[in-house]
Amino acid sequence: MFDSLSDRLTGALKDLRGKGRLSDADIDRTSREIRLALLEADVSLPVVRTFIARIKERSKGAEVSAALNPAQQVVKIVNEELVGILGGETRRVQFAKNPPTIVMLAGLQGAGKTTLAGKLGNWFSQQGHTPILVACDLQRPGAVSQLQIVGERAGVPVFAPHAGTSVGGEGELGISSGDPVEVARAGVEEARRLQHDVVIIDTAGRLGIDEELMRQASDIRDATQPDEVLFVVDAMIGQDAVSTAEAFQEGVGFTGVVLTKLDGDARGGAALSVREITGRPIMFASSGEKLEDFDVFHPDRMASRILG
Ligand code: GDP
């Protein structure tokens, strides 16, 4: 996804190589090229401005170093600032002191929440946890059965409304209610009863932001008191990623971000701006439809990947 950004940035920094000293004009020119590369990749303007200001300030004031030549020093500064924008340290899941740990997924329809529920379930299982998925997306036709398929593939049980209320079947974990808040509450109860130590709640999304979506997500949040609310965002949607994040931040609030569809060929820079704009860390990244196309998000590794 970040191939062209990566090419542009490495190109901009390459021009500095071989110079014994960097003049202010060199730094200004390189900063301009970096700025263009970021804007072209769809990184949002306020984030670009802050980033460039810091690069310039630090590069012009850089101490002479015995270990690094001036060009290497600028590369180091750009790398450090990029890691900073992406959140600095890797942010780990906050587990509840008294299990179960409740993880709620929120985001627009199509962001990849249901797919992510399976990936997270699989990931928690691999870490030795005993997750359960709770199907609270009762809006999108087929979302419940999609979660059941995803759960089966991941080997993780799914708590869902029974047939007649929505989808489900005999002998499955479930509840006879079509109210997502009730389903969420009952799912957490069931997790407690069956001693699952992680509950992953899939919620409904809309194609765009609307009040009812926000209210429903807030009601589920209030009813279940999640330890983590993960805002799931499709990195392919460009600048809308930032405005959607702001709307969810205000309407529901979240503790972390999951970037999805990083395997796409869109520019993706907007998604990289979400941390800086909302102050919430990017915790996971999804890069495909398969269970294993998923990882913890490491800001330093992403920065190194982008800088080539
Ligand atoms: P939801 O509406 O938020 O639950 O979104 P879904 O989980 O149904 O995902 C919407 C579509 O995006 C589905 O076709 C998924 O297979 C696909 N999808 C989800 N995550 C990824 C990803 O990381 N990469 C790609 N290429 N497709 C994804």
Automatic annotation (TrEMBL):
It catalyses: GTP + H2O = GDP + phosphate + H(+). GTP binds at residues 107-114, 202-206, 260-263. This is Signal recognition particle protein. Belongs to the GTP-binding SRP family. SRP54 subfamily. Composed of three domains: the N-terminal N domain, which is responsible for interactions with the ribosome, the central G domain, which binds GTP, and the C-terminal M domain, which binds the RNA and the signal sequence of the RNC. It is found in: Cytoplasm. It is an enzyme of class 3 (hydrolase). One of its GO terms (biological process) is SRP-dependent cotranslational protein targeting to membrane. Its EC number is 3.6.5.4. The chain holds residues 1 to 308 of 521 of the full protein. Part of the signal recognition particle protein translocation system, which is composed of SRP and FtsY. GO terms for cellular component: signal recognition particle. It comes from Gordonia soli NBRC 108243. Residues 281-294 form the SRP54-type proteins GTP-binding domain. The gene is ffh. Transmembrane segments: none annotated. Keywords: Cytoplasm, GTP-binding, Hydrolase, Nucleotide-binding, Ribonucleoprotein, RNA-binding, Signal recognition particle. GO terms for molecular function: 7S RNA binding; GTP binding; GTPase activity. Involved in targeting and insertion of nascent membrane proteins into the cytoplasmic membrane. Binds to the hydrophobic signal sequence of the ribosome-nascent chain (RNC) as it emerges from the ribosomes. The SRP-RNC complex is then targeted to the cytoplasmic membrane where it interacts with the SRP receptor FtsY. The keyword Lyase does not apply.
